[in-house]
Amino acid sequence: MSTLKVLEGDFSAWTCAACGQPLAMRPVELDYLGSRFTVELPACPACGQALIPEDLAQGKMAQVEKLLEDK
Amino acid sequence: MTRATAEVPFWARPGMRTVVGDALRPGGLDLTRRGLALAGVPRGSRVLDAGCGPGATLDFLAGQGLRPCGLDLNPPGPAPSAPGRNAHPRVAGDVEALPFADSVFGAVFCECVLSLVPDPDRAMRELVRVLAPGGCLVVSDLLRTDNAPRMRHAGSRAPGSCAAGAFGFARMLGMLQANGLFPRAVENHTRLLKELAASLLFLGELVSRPTCATGYFLLVAGKTGETPCSTTPACG
Prior knowledge:
The complex is a heterodimer.
Chain A: E1 4-5, E2 24-32, E3 35-43, H1 54-58, H2 60-69
Parallel strand pairs in A: 1-3
Antiparallel strand pairs in A: 2-3
Chain B: H1 3-7, H2 14-20, H3 28-39, E1 46-50, H4 56-63, E2 67-72, E3 90-92, E4 105-111, H5 120-129, E5 131-144, H6 162-165, E6 167-168, H7 169-178, E7 181-188, H8 190-202, E8 214-223
Parallel strand pairs in B: 1-2, 1-4, 2-3, 4-5, 5-6
Antiparallel strand pairs in B: 5-8, 7-8
């Protein structure tokens, strides 16, 4: 499966609070209940921590969770 | 659901290729591989892919030592940018009226197609007609998990969504029985359908969750009273 582009917008102004590095878009693996999705998220190139914007968490990600959980 | 997404069937949405490549169905070629393993089709067998689409399954089957032939309403032409690809025979035709003689294929694959055809019973009769003695039918498709009737109007030739054309598994078993077939293996792959829907949600090509109760299955069937394909030389 290809990396899924789930975000629009420019996140280059964000920096990692722990490392001070500017975030860069990179593939991040999301695991839900045994299913794995590779999505492109802004992440720290040093420590790998990814930023999940609130609208993504409460929008598409919440919908995917409900779908996989049959809710 | 927006008007734009409601009018475009899943298989025709650009995101499908992002998720499953040219195998435009849940599970992509992984489920084809699984079906082939369950069917045990001998190398060199002539195999029909009924509803071959862009031809990903044809390439896969040829890579497994089989002799695939594709059928689709609108088979695409050769792709010069992909050497070695699309070199298999392809025929323009209707799965409800297969342009082949009886008993000529050692195996028939029909993946995510019966839910799209106007008359699945007629299509099943045709798929079984071209199957050689000892041959295997490999079907994967959506199924209704409630008792609701098929939403697609019988006989409609308009292109529609697979979800609207899905029917219950009891009907599938009835169609097999009516044509002298019995299921050798049945697997539930609803998880793959959910993962595909989830990926399309992520891509913004599915705005809301599917509303009808659907699952996904893989089935390998053979003719009643026959020896499985893998031990029958006639399949070649």
